[in-house]
Amino acid sequence: MRYVYPALFTEEEDGKYSVVFPDLEGCYSCGDDLADAIYMAEDVLAFTLYSMEKRKETIPNPSSLSGETIPVNSFVNYIACDTLEYQKMNNNKAVKKTLTIPEWLNEMATEAGINFSQVLQDALKAKIGIN
To answer: In the list 5, 21, 74, 129, which could disulfide-bond 62, CB 3.0-4.6 Å?
Structure first.
């Protein structure tokens, strides 16, 4: 769920930057300055790839853009993202689940002050191998 793609940064006449990911259709952004453009590029890349993962679309391999003609006032920079981290930060809506456990276990866990939701979250993360 970690990716690195080349992005084409172009400085505009007003000093702002536009950003395009040539390997990903419709994946582009902009920023008020270079730092903002890099931040926005990371965000749009993670959003685009997460959306593709969710729709089970084939994610293209990144190109190197070597040998490509780079326009004046432009440069290539590689942008990295982690779609799992993006999902954790942007998709935290609580979902209610109904489960069944033996009554004796429920009573003991309740007496021990155990947070059932936290235990389930921790167990699910361990089961699928994420932190």
So the answer is: 5
pLDDT at 21 over 90: yes
Using CA atoms, how far apart are residues 5 and 63, in angstroms rounded to an integer?
7
What three-state secondary structure class fits 18?
strand
Q: What is d(CA 126, CA 120) in angstroms, rounded to the nearest whole number?
A: 10
Place of tokens 């002050």: 113
Cα 40 to Cα 61, 112, 122, distances in angstroms: 21, 46, 32
pTM above 0.90, yes or no: no
Contact 10, 17 (CB under 8 A): yes
CA separation for the pair 74, 97 (Å, rounded): 50
